[in-house]
Request: fold
Amino acid sequence: MRMRQVATCQFEPAVGDTDSNIASIEKFARDLPDAVEFTVFPELCVTGYDLDIVQTQQFSIPGSMTERLSEVAHATETDLVVGLPEADGDSVYNSLVYISKSGVEATYRKQKLWGDEADQFDAGTTPVTVETSIGTLDYCCVTT
Reply:
């Protein structure tokens, strides 16, 4: 039986340079051991965590950015969870997207915005549960 693994990858995204950030995501995913089937990347890693660029860099889901990330997932044979600013109509969300080799599987919109995030993002309203290659993934907001 093959042992399935999850990886978390931390890197400092280049603010506003989505091409460089996608290249970093792909490099990390390619360099992981073969047993890794599922990889989690940082919040807003596609654009870099900078609230000043949110109004100029936001992406529809699905869309061209998630298509690029789907290509990475397919090429590296690992499912990805990545953070990006999601545009939906007049709203913008700080979102995590689960992308498998088949494309977008689920999107979680951050519910508890802190500091100046609330000036740039709308808050999500629901948790998300999705079946993945490694088991059930619950995106949720825990309040204490």
Remarks:
- The chain has a mean pLDDT of 93.
- The helical segments are 18-31, 64-76, 117-120.
